[in-house]
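Example record

One chain of 98 residues, shown exactly as stored in the release files.
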Amino acid sequence: MTEPTNDTEAIQAAIRRLNERAWGISTGLVLGLGLLVATLFLVIKGGANVGQHLNLLGNYLPGYRVTFLGAFIGFVYAFVLGYGAGRVVGTVYNRMVR
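Predicted structure tokens for this chain:
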């Protein structure tokens, strides 16, 4: 028979660990969908100078513009950046809990 403390410790260690891939995907989706929704909102809203501040992201994300196509290009960029950031957060957290 095993000691309860070993089982308890094993369960607690498993709970403390994060799934790095899940953190990456969730962070990527939050950032990607946020940029997608913001861009589509500005495109639908319209106006004389649509999204002049959001348009500045085109300096860092080649191909991104405040247009329907640009919204999906921005989604891809934001998802990739968010995925990377989420993976880093998950990895650092898991190393700190060991």
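Notes: The chain has a mean pLDDT of 89.
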